[in-house]
Design brief:
Elements lengths: L3 H8 L5 H10 L3 H19 L7 H16 L11 H6 L10 H12 L8 H11 L6 H15 L17 H11 L7 H4 L12 H8 L9 H10 L2 H14 L5 H10 L17 H30 L3 H10 L5 E6 L1 H8 L4 H7 E3 L8 E6 L2 E6 L4 E6 L3 H7 L20 E2 L4 E2 L3 E4 L5 H12 L6
Parallel strand pairs: 1-2
Antiparallel strand pairs: 1-3, 3-4, 4-5, 5-8, 6-7
Helix pairs in contact: 6-8, 7-8, 9-11, 11-13, 13-14, 13-15, 15-16
């Protein structure tokens, strides 16, 4: 191991605060910079000669060799390891490692002549990396190994003992909040590099730490989720925050769409492996809330920005919770307008550009087995039963729609016959006359079956 004086000799230049700021004030010296880079490269080459652990392939071969010995009935006391093998052994555990083989590896590791306190590092890495994949027995075996040696061999490890209990990750998150430390210090507290924040172990740590994040203040949360990058954490923490939100939160919507996905894509919001019934329920309830948020924003955007129609906006806002999907059809200019208000991911998935540059746009709203189409230019709405002949006629060329009017089948009957006071299964309805909202609401209640409402 190199101490500070050895490092200074190798570097060949001093490094302290005065000199560092002196270099800055003096300006950039490219020649000296390149010279120092060469010195550092030389140090790196020399350090490669002294390895802390075997390579991944070498560890795999070592584990396979020991597994064969275990199967053959070899006693752990008869197996000698090199220092490098002893340090590397713990890194070789996976979710498929049998508990009896784990005991065998631990006994081999603890044999006199094999053991060194540095052996704990590999076992700790494997424990945190496979925290939710390891069986309770494997987790307990590694925990007991740490406890046995934390006092007599590696006292600095004793401080992490409370954090490797089953509820240890949550304890760590609570400890960081209580001591007002950043979530970024979670890995170093359990003797891991900060880059290991992506280990699954830190899922409950981050959930606990951000348990009561103030609404709208998500910058730190986003940084943590991006670096942690575990779907399990996203699908537990974000639904909780969504369920607690009092009203529409565009920032939270953006975070959820980036981390989990478009709520209109059910596959993105499928439960993660081993999710509890409560977690599954929260995930689906949160998805429904997001659907309503998106539809409310789409309706507001369509009837406030693309056109100005307060009556239609108010009516469809009350129906938003019944909608399961939507499409917006319009010109390139209209698409640019929509991008100002909705995430690009949503626009790419739900906006269809037509060839015509006419300002008229269409909003297709799916509910139950029907799709209702509204237009920015006041006239009539059209309600199609998905799969009917009228529907096929209106949407048959949807991939290459040339003009918005192609979505209108004008010979359709009226949805509500004023003379006979009866509803048609599909048709059109003008926005003229008294109580069109009442008639449309009655038609929706009578005709559309909403699934999972």
């Amino acid at each position: 191991m190199m101490d500070r004086s050895d490092l200074k000799k190798l570097l060949g230049f001093g490094y302290n605060e005065d000199r560092v700021f002196g270099f800055v004030n003096a300006g950039f010296n490219e020649e000296k910079f390149n010279e120092n880079l060469d010195i550092l490269k030389g140090i790196g080459d020399r350090m490669l000669e002294v390895r802390d652990a075997l390579s991944d392939d070498e560890i795999k071969k070592l584990i396979n060799h020991l597994h064969k010995l275990w199967k053959e009935g070899e006693e752990p006391e008869s197996i000698d390891l090199t220092l490098l093998e002893a340090r590397s052994l713990g890194y070789g555990l996976t979710e498929k490692t049998e508990i009896d083989f784990v005991y065998f590896l631990i006994k081999t590791e603890e044999k006199d002549g094999n053991w060194t306190p540095s052996c704990l590092k590999g076992f700790l890495h494997s424990l945190l990396r496979h925290w939710y994949e390891f069986s309770p027995d494997v987790r307990e075996a590694i925990k007991q190994l740490v406890l046995r040696h934390s006092d007599k061999d590696a006292k600095e490890i004793a401080v992490i003992a409370p954090f490797i209990d089953n509820d240890g990750p949550a304890k760590l998150g609570a400890y960081l909040r209580k001591t007002k430390q950043s979530w970024q210090w979670a890995p170093p507290i359990v003797l891991m590099p900060t880059t290991r924040i992506n280990y699954p172990y830190f899922s409950d740590t981050i959930q606990t730490y951000f348990n009561d994040v103030p609404q709208g203040e998500y910058d730190e949360l986003i940084s943590a989720l991006n670096l942690h990058n575990q779907m399990r954490t996203d699908k537990i923490l974000l639904p909780k925050l969504i369920l607690e939100a009092e009203d529409f939160d565009k920032n939270l919507l953006d975070v959820a769409m980036k981390r989990i996905g478009d709520p209109f894509d059910e596959t993105k919001w499928a439960p993660f492996d081993d999710a509890s019934e409560e977690q599954k329920k929260n995930l689906q309830q949160a998805r429904k809330i997001l659907l309503n948020w998106v539809m409310q924003e789409v309706i507001r955007l369509f009837f406030e920005v693309l056109c100005q129609d307060k009556d239609r906006k108010n009516f469809w806002s009350k129906q938003a919770h019944k909608l399961s999907n939507f499409r917006v059809y319009g010109s390139i200019f209209s698409r640019q307008q929509v991008l100002k208000y909705l995430p690009a991911q949503t626009v790419n998935r739900h906006f269809r550009t037509v060839d015509s540059n006419v300002d008229n746009c269409a909003l297709a709203m799916f509910m139950g087995d029907y799709v209702v189409v509204e237009f920015t230019q006041t006239g009539a709405l059209y309600a199609y039963k998905v799969g009917s002949s009228y529907y096929r006629e209106a949407f048959q060329s949807i991939g290459s729609l040339s003009k918005i009017d192609d979505l209108k089948v004008t010979r359709m009957p009226m949805l509500y016959d004023l003379d006979y006071m009866r509803f048609a299964p599909e048709g059109r309805m003008t926005h003229q006359g008294l109580y069109w909202q009442w008639r449309m609401e009655k038609w929706i209640d009578r005709q559309i079956k909403i699934k999972n409402e």
